[in-house]
Specification:
Blueprint (H helix, E strand, L loop, with lengths): L4 H6 L9 E4 L5 H7 L8 E4 L3 H9 L5 E4 L13 E6 L2 H6 L5 H15 E9 L6 H8 L14
Length: 152
């Protein structure tokens, strides 16, 4: 599956991914796929606002996946030390809101920096921004491990 291609690209760079944050309102399917993707998990966290993810994860009997309902932009350090942060559209929604666009983007980047370990990985998919635009917004000297169409 195309969404997992980036994990194939960076898997060798990962010593151990044990704590993952899925930013947004997804249904938990990507995390279910990652659990079976030969990554070593101690705990996986799914930041969400929807009950669907809890139901899907419970159906799959994934007791190591914890669903927390947290406002990512206002969590003030509540989320920290993640090895991997994944965004499959939350940034698009936040950054395209006509109110406080620049402030919202800066707040998102700040929240991400607080959530992600210094040596952690950030994977984002976007339908609204080009790779170069995303790199400009998110990378400040960090390295890009690899990219696939629509992903880096």
């Amino acid at each position: 599956q195309r969404e997992l291609q980036i994990f194939k690209d960076i898997r060798d760079s990962m010593d151990q991914i044990s704590v993952i944050l899925d930013i947004g309102e997804g249904n938990g399917i990507l995390l279910i796929e990652l659990v079976g993707f030969e990554l070593k998990f101690e705990g996986v966290y799914f930041c969400s606002l929807c009950r669907t993810s809890r139901n899907v994860l419970q159906t799959e009997d994934l007791s190591n996946v914890e669903v927390k309902e947290v406002d990512f932009m206002s969590c003030s350090g509540e989320l920290s030390s993640f090895d991997l942060c994944i965004d499959k559209g939350a940034f698009d929604t936040i950054s395209l809101n006509p109110e406080n666009t620049e402030e919202s983007k800066a707040c998102y980047v700040q929240a991400l920096r607080g959530a992600l370990k210094e040596e952690g990985f950030f994977v984002i998919t976007s339908c609204s921004w080009t790779k170069d635009q995303l790199l400009q917004m998110f990378s400040q000297g960090e390295r890009t491990v690899g990219d696939t169409p629509g992903m880096f």
